[in-house]
Amino acid sequence: MQNNSEIVSEIVTPELLEQAVDYASHEKMIKDLFKEGRTTNEDNRENMLNYTKMYLQRVSRWDKRGKLNIELIDKLKSFPRKMIWLVLNEGWCGDSAQTIPFINKMAEVSKNIDLKIILRDQNLELMDQFLTNGARSIPKLIALDANSLEILGTWGPRPKEAYEMHIAQRSDPDIPNKQAVENLHLWYARDKGESIQQEFLELLEEWA
């Protein structure tokens, strides 16, 4: 019987990675589709287009204003292992808009980290190997050794503090789901990317 790592190693192939795109190309695709009234998974209902619009606004804000802390920058510049960070995403995901700009900034700092992005709904076989409590939650980052494609670890769909807060609020009957989502994005606005940076400082130690 195959174990999970064997199954994943058969799915994460050089051919799959060739289909992945860099951050700039991914964001351009989302923008171009939105101009046509389309989303990345062709769920083109009005609410999904509104989510895409918010995604693009949030990404633009963090691209401009997001800052990495000095400790993380130093760690990334000296990071010794060549890696691929393969991220599963869709262009309407609120958590992705708040986190992937910081992941991209990290990859830009290190000469040994190559960020590649693929669409979740076009790669469900891979996504289903990395479920979060049974859900296809994104973003999901899969850290790969660049040479062997060994899976070193994962991150996602959101920083631990945000994840636990949101789960608690969603299960609270006194907090409407809409309010829980608004509270999550307020958390991201106040956090300014600090939590994800602290988590990646620890992950880089594990992945070196």
Textual characterization of the structure:
The chain has 208 residues and is an alpha+beta fold. It has one domain (4-157): Glutaredoxin (3-Layer(aba) Sandwich), CATH 3.40.30. The chain contains ten helices and four strands. α3 (23-35) runs antiparallel to α4, α4 (46-65) packs parallel to α6 and α8 packs antiparallel against α9 (177-191). The protein is globular and about 45 Å long. The two termini are 30 Å apart.
Concise summary:
The protein is α+β, with helices and mostly antiparallel strands and 208 residues long. The chain has helices at 4-11, 14-19, 23-35, 46-65, 70-77, 94-109, 124-127, 160-170, 177-191, 194-207; strands at residues 83-89, 113-119, 140-145, 151-155.
- Give the helices and strands as they follow along the chain: HHHHHEHEHEEHHH
Largest sheet: 4 strands, mixed
User: Which strand order do you get reading across the main beta sheet?
Assistant: 2-1-3-4
CATH architecture: 3-Layer(aba) Sandwich
List keywords for this structure.
208 residues; Glutaredoxin
Break the fold down into its secondary structure elements and pairings:
Elements: H1 4-11, H2 14-19, H3 23-35, H4 46-65, H5 70-77, E1 83-89, H6 94-109, E2 113-119, H7 124-127, E3 140-145, E4 151-155, H8 160-170, H9 177-191, H10 194-207
Parallel strand pairs: 1-2
Antiparallel strand pairs: 1-3, 3-4
Helix pairs in contact: 3-4, 4-6, 5-10, 8-9
